[in-house]
Write a structure and sequence with these properties.
Rossmann fold; two-stranded antiparallel ribbon; 11 strands; 5-stranded parallel β-sheet; alpha/beta; single chain; about 20% strand; globular
């Protein structure tokens, strides 16, 4: 059993590592953490570089993007939870993603991620998650089946997550789908008489107009237009 490394710490005492291959997202995260007065902020472009650096200087919290070219965020979490990673086994992780699908969330919970946050990020959401992690009393326990450390209530979290998805789908199925109103079939075009007694069609397909004009021989001809 290992204690949460961020447990009981104030934001101004935290050492936070964030990992993201996007320079723009790195700048946004650095701005958010600096605005929250986090004591130390370290950014990395890829998971492998971050893991090597954290083995030397373990942080209190890791914020990592999911999609990265060489190794994704969950690969980084799996490496951290390996007993050979020493103190990194008890470093809480916040996973950031633009696609928080059911499969991804369940995988994250199974690997020992504390929170999954959807992009685009808001400063308030990030700060709330940091405070929640710092006040989280859960410990990390060794899982014999996987050979890695996981959160102590992992199975309970997974069961609760699956129940929420099931409740959501049940609600969607129970909600009646509104059918669009049926429109009456279009009325056929009809002819009507104008003031001069001539017949004309409503809409497209008006009858040709007849005009007199002089041909090349000077003879008066009629043409249709």
């Amino acid at each position: 059993m290992r204690q949460n490394r961020a447990g009981g710490r104030d934001l101004r005492d935290l050492d936070v590592v964030f990992v993201d291959d996007s320079r723009q997202d790195q700048a946004i995260m650095r701005s958010i953490l600096s605005g929250a007065r986090v004591a130390r902020v370290r950014g990395f472009d890829n998971a492998q570089e971050a893991h090597h650096a954290m083995l030397v200087e373990p942080p209190h919290i890791v914020i990592t993007d999911w999609e990265m070219p060489d190794a994704d965020g969950l690969t980084l979490v799996r490496s951290m939870r390996d007993p050979r990673s020493g103190p990194l086994t008890s470093v809480p992780v916040i996973l950031v993603t633009s696609e928080p699908t059911r499969t991804l969330v369940e995988r994250a919970i199974a690997l020992g991620v504390h929170h999954v946050v959807a992009k685009p990020l808001s400063p308030a959401a990030v700060v709330r998650r940091l405070e929640a992690v710092a006040n989280d009393p859960r410990t990390f326990v060794f899982d014999e089946a996987s050979g890695h450390f996981v959160l102590e209530d992992r199975e309970k979290l997974l069961a609760g997550q699956r129940q929420r998805w099931q409740d959501l789908m049940t609600g969607v199925k129970a909600f009646p789908t509104r059918q669009p109103p049926r429109r009456p079939p279009p009325r056929p075009e009809t002819a009507e008489e104008d003031d001069k007694g001539r017949s004309r069609l409503l809409g497209f397909g008006a009858p040709p107009r007849v005009e007199p004009f002089e041909g090349a021989t000077g003879q008066r001809l009629e043409r249709t237009a």
